[in-house]
Amino acid sequence: MQPTAYLSGTVRSPEVRLYFDPAATHLVHGTLLIDWVKLAPSRHFDGQRRCWVITAFGVDKNPDAMLRKAGFALDLVNGPPGQPLDPSLDGVLSLCDLMAPLVRASAIKPSMALCRPRFVGWHGARDLLGRGSVWDKANGRFEVPLTNVLLHGQPRPGLEVEPATVAAAQALLRAEESFGHARFSDAAISADLSTAAASSGLDLTGADQAAIDRLVEVTGDIPGWFGMSPYPYQRLGAMAISAGRSLLCDPTGLGKTLQVIGAFALRDVQRGVIVVPPVVVTNWAREIERCGLAAVPPKPPTKAELKRRERAAKKAATAAAKQAARDGASPLAAARAAAQGTANDERATAAATTVATPSSTLPGPAGSPLAPPSNSAASLGTGASSVPDDRAINLTETAPQRTLVVFRAGRKEPDLPETGIVVVPDSLLSARPALAEKIARWDPDGYAYDEAHRARTWLGKRSTVARDLVARMRPGTLTIAATATPLFSNPAELAPLLAISGHLDRVFGGYEAFMARYTKKDFFNKDVPRLEALPELRAILTEKVWVRRVKEEVLRDLPPKTRRGLILDVDLAGFRAAHDEVVAKICSWIDSFCTAEGRYPEDEEAQAWGKTQIGLISPLRKAAGVAKVPAALDRIAEWISQEASINIDGTVTCERPLIVWAHHQEVIQALRAAAPAHLKDHHLPLVKVIDGSTSSVERGRIVDEFQAGRIPVLVASITAAGVGITLTKSSDLWFLESDWSVPHQSQAEDRAWRIGQENHVSVTTLLAAGTLDGRIQDILVRKADLISKVLGEGSDAEMDLVEGDLDVAAAPAEIIASLVEVAVARHAQTRAKQAA
Fold first, then answer.
1. Domain boundary among 117, 145, 174
2. What is the domain count for the chain?
3. What is the reported pTM?
């Protein structure tokens, strides 16, 4: 039997089917053909047709020559036995013609391209496409940003790109940064946008009024029906966002929610989607209703309510008839009185069950911490007469009739309205592909992602879902990424946010170009910052991309904030036990390495292993946190004695409450468990906890009581309580633990240091001598320095070094590597003693 290779499949997904005797050998090497076939990068056996199928040969291969050299006859015309050749393969003269990955623009995602690997294979196609490609396993293809298929404006070498796709990618790169507004490409208007994006202060003293007037003429102003009174900097921020500066990065506490809603109002968004963290769903819904952008429709009456109305109507009719009879009215007049009584009762009942104002459908305080003291709109110094009649916003005094729809986990999915605003948790959206598809088909004309840094990992589920949804929206759709922490430690984290806001392709030339310019590969092939390019990145973001103000400049009367470190002497027994366990695991790895290699690991090898063992640090951090609990509770008890007072009715009043922040659940539980014994002299539950297990209802109740001065001490999780709440009653913050992330630390601090704070804010980090606390502080300082290069000075990314003997700054993997180094030295000493 002559071994034969048949071309099969389609031009997009070609394959070669191999028919040969199992005992056949390679024509040159003499090995079994079946063993040679198994070396192909992608192959499988088709049990039904009794043949092997090769779908990839690899990079820089000549499949025709390889097959002939192995002894196969090559048939590119007839197709496999019993399977005619697909018409798309007619005219193929060589398998080499099908090597290059085939790329075409997506029909449903205008900013994305689809790539079939073909015979170059999965790994080869990924390398040719560059960074940013995402494998769609279900469809057997890559999805890649459309601009990634070009290099210097031309198709990337090694790719076969359809001409229409090349034209679409080139057009996208040439697109003006206008987001559907031709006048925004004007140099003067661009400068006006920069003025608005950088506006600060609660008034516009010293502002360029002419620039503001020009911007209002183009973007319009906040409509008259808007139910809140934004500060001037918030109004200008909303205008800049609606005009294309749609990466909103104001620090926490400056009112990003109000600015996003204002931008939706300016654009007259009819179908808007707002993606938010689960813990702030209710807050967003409440603010949308307050602003009048949309409202939850009144619920239809239940059967019980209808029966109650019927009984009330009959009762009213009977009473009216009796009264008419007593007044001596005729039977006809009595009947008319009964009918009138029924109608009056029905109107009264309907009025009692109808929502009187939008804000009545959701719980929450009547006022807003972001509203200026006056109920009148904060003036921009521009009258209505300066705004042209043809601007694309709604100027009516009556709020638009949009329906507010809120999705919640564990609840039945509501229907999408004809027009309205949808609030959906990001975790729910990423967990339910059908929901994301449903929203995409709804065809939104406005999209916002609050706390968008949650999607900062390019290949993460949240990021992929968010970018896919944005990619399917029509050109010119307003897409907003809002976060106070756009950067944690690496410019790569900005790329997904820029893709969501629509700037990644237009301003930076796509994902690949952005990554190549602002990151580089380190020894471990990991993307790390290209430090020399960060000032340029900051300049571009400021000039073309974001709205970002410095809190101290906007809130000039905001009290200062200071940080300090306090070193505690604690019982280290628990930490040492955890340390010994970690060292034992390291020694076990050293034993295995020495057995396999006959030597001790080099520093680079120790660091490479440390990269895979970051989890070893977690037990040490937990142990250090738990070790500080007794000392912290002693100080908490002293604080309560000085600051809290017991009222005659047994309630507690504390005008200077304390917030204690922690990271690990084990540390929070240790505080919760030990608090009653340490505070037994006070005879009251003076400590409350907000962590991941706290329900939204309980969370709201605790916050209200804390703000009212009825909770002396609040223990809060940095991750669970670091967003979506206001704790301005406190000006004293203790960090029992530190998060690895500088932005998470700042977010937690900003629960108190924000609009409404009247006192100097003191932040104290409690450190345990003899633990990893010192090194963690050094890492935070180093990360803060990198972040400030992009976000700028005054970004609240700066961290103060804690006084004391601190170890040299080291990344988490480097900490593991240093532990390995110590363990190697001890291991060698032990062996030397045993040998002696």
1. 174
2. 5
3. 0.66
